[in-house]
């Protein structure tokens, strides 16, 4: 299935949740509101016509120093593909910079557990309902989240 | 009940916590596991990665697109060519750069040679961990031949930085072809030798069959990729799903397992080596003379001779090397089939010569995440077999 069709299916199933789509080099990113992210992911995973069973990656981007960007500071990004139908889609949800929170999708894909722990560790996004939200790559007593743009490259 | 009986009963019931690593010969680097044991049975496993964390993603945000290529060598340092390729393919997708056919064949050829090298290290160390020491001596001997071939082409045995945005650094030297052909004729015989060592070995079968079982559904749910996933019988190979380089022009099969245990994953990777050998032969036969870098004047790095003779080329080379050229705004996620599994690069560009954000989807990281599920309920000795079978390198996991 084409990525545009998948974006349309999400919009039909969850009216008002999709805030737009971005497209570059033939890849489609669907912007959604963060509140119902787990329901959307559950739908993408379970729907027999979509079957997005392989969550390739979860990450976050800090848009605080992106030129002319006006949205909330962080964006949580989900890259997924269906191993049977071989179609891809990218979900993007903006969360605020003051208290970045979004629901975990670990109940949908077990692999999200470690991706979300890494995103919490390096970017400081809190995943509500995560079973084991600890730092993973940095030591337990580390202060700060290094992938945020204000974090210095050296001299720390 | 005698007093000794009571003592024995208490000893068996007590759960102990065992720290394994980060310095341990069977953890393939600096992996640390915290194991909760009931007797010799693992009841819980908590991997603690991060001992090799160098902040590579942060580092990449502060380098130009060209300067990032050597950093990718330091991810999965056994098969650096595949990391170079994965990154460069993603950048080319971002900027819409087309690559000439000869360069595509060279990339495919070198990537498959490196895949063989990576699988040989895997087979040797995996067998060594389980107790079959001889295999390692043989596989490292053949790996030496591959490193020699790599050296002829790139000048380096490891950390090659050979793939360039828009092509490759230099053409294959003339003496490479004969030596490579010689290797492809020798290698299948050597694979048979490895089979005679362990394929039917009773100890090997006892240690690998029925261990670390993942059903197809579980394997996909846990994000496993590469040979680790295909051992469970899921036909998902990115060289077929989303062909890059010249993989759509060569013929090869995707071997699949059925049981999803350590033994099936071993069989899958051995067969993958035969297929890689087949791809290398086809590349040697199908390669035609032609340019090795893109003809897009914005991204093509001028040849050295032209730089020395022409002022314009000199200036352009200086710009490319020092700050690169503005790239289109946008974002891509491009995944390639590295020897360990799906190596993905998610690149966000803000239109400058430096990436705004790069996320590396490292297969080793995801595979270690699945390790607790794999080892729980097994014996301590099986943990070693499971670490071997998920085929990890900690440089890539910790980044």
Molecular structure report:
The complex is a heterodimer of chains A (156) and B (399). Helices cover 21% and strands 28% of the residues of chain A. Chain A is an alpha/beta fold. Chain A has a five-stranded mixed sheet. Chain A has a two-stranded parallel sheet with strand order 6-7. In chain A, a hairpin with a 6-residue loop joins strand 4 and strand 5. The radius of gyration of chain A is 16 Å and the shape is globular. With 399 residues, chain B is α+β, with helices and mostly antiparallel strands. Chain B has two domains: 3-47, no CATH class; 64-294 and 324-398, Cytochrome-c3 Hydrogenase, chain B. In chain B, strand 2 (33-38) and strand 3 form a beta hairpin. The longest helix of chain B is centred in the N-terminal third of the chain and has 30 residues, at 101-130. The relative contact order of chain B is 0.18. Classes of the chains: A alpha/beta (156), B alpha+beta (399). The A-B interface holds A 22, 24-25, 27, 29, 53-57, 59, 61-62, 66-67, 77, 79, 81, 83, 86, 88, 90, 109-111, 113-115, 118, 122, 136-139, 146-147, 151, 153 and B 49-50, 53, 55, 57-59, 62, 93-94, 96, 217-218, 220-223, 225, 234-236, 241-242, 328-333, 335, 342, 344, 346, 348, 350-351, 356-357, 359, 361, 365-366, 368-370, 373, 398-399.
How do the strands line up in the largest sheet of chain A? Answer: 1-2-5-4-3
CATH homologous superfamily grouping of chain A: NADH:ubiquinone oxidoreductase Nqo5 subunit
Shape of chain A: globular
User: How many structural units, i.e. domains of chain A?
Assistant: 1
Distance between the termini of chain B: 57 Å
SSE topology:
The complex is a heterodimer of chains A (156) and B (399).
Chain A: H1 3-13, E1 18-24, E2 27-32, H2 37-46, E3 54-62, E4 74-81, E5 88-95, E6 101-103, H3 112-123, E7 126-128
Parallel strand pairs in A: 2-5, 6-7
Antiparallel strand pairs in A: 1-2, 3-4, 4-5
Chain B: H1 3-13, E1 15-20, E2 33-38, E3 41-47, H2 56-61, H3 69-73, H4 80-95, H5 101-130, H6 133-154, E4 163-164, E5 167-168, H7 174-199, H8 202-208, H9 216-221, H10 226-230, H11 238-241, H12 262-286, H13 304-309, H14 311-322, E6 330-338, E7 341-349, E8 355-361, H15 363-369, H16 371-375, H17 380-389, H18 394-398
Antiparallel strand pairs in B: 1-2, 2-3, 4-5, 6-7, 7-8
